[in-house]
């Protein structure tokens, strides 16, 4: 577990590569109740102008915060987290799935003893989450 005294503004978190598969979409749909056909029906997704079946935005968001929780060693260290959904993540119908690259950087030490971490998540070299940041409290 990382300690506050070992953190400085500018520190970069270890990068994380996430694999999102169609099986992940099925599991997330079942857990969330979001059965929108854009997340499972290729024909429907392309008919509405998408490049194919896409990952749930909240699934992408939930997986991306792992860059921070893996770094802190404690999911409870995250006291605030927010994103804007920028681009969809198309999930091909194969065993590879979609690879999302996630990085983080400490950008502020706040007066309340927490740190702000900006998060970047990209698919195919393009950002998929805009304005993603977390505030963490470290021991």
From TrEMBL:
Pfam families per record = MaoC_dehydratas
SUPFAM superfamilies linked = Thioesterase/thiol ester dehydrase-isomerase (SSF54637)
Bilayer-crossing residues are none
Signal peptide positions (record)? none
Q: Where is the MaoC-like domain?
A: 17-117
Q: Cross-referenced PANTHER family, in alphabetical order?
A: (3R)-HYDROXYACYL-ACP DEHYDRATASE SUBUNIT HADB, 3-HYDROXYACYL-THIOESTER DEHYDRATASE HTDX-RELATED
Q: Which family does it belong to?
A: Belongs to the enoyl-CoA hydratase/isomerase family.
Q: What is this protein called?
A: MaoC family dehydratase
């Amino acid at each position: 577990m990382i300690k506050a005294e070992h953190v400085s503004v500018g520190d970069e978190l270890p990068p994380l590569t996430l694999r999102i598969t169609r099986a992940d979409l099925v599991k997330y749909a079942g857990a969330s109740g979001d059965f929108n056909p854009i997340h499972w029906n290729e024909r429907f997704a392309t008919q509405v102008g998408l490049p194919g079946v896409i990952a749930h935005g909240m699934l992408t968001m939930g997986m991306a915060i792992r860059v921070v929780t893996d770094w802190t060693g404690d999911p409870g260290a995250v006291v605030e987290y927010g994103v804007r959904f920028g681009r969809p993540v198309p999930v091909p119908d194969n065993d590879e799935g979609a690879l999302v690259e996630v990085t983080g950087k400490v950008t502020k030490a706040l007066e309340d003893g927490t740190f702000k971490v900006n998060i970047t998540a990209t698919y195919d070299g393009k950002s998929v989450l805009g304005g993603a940041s977390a505030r963490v409290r470290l021991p």
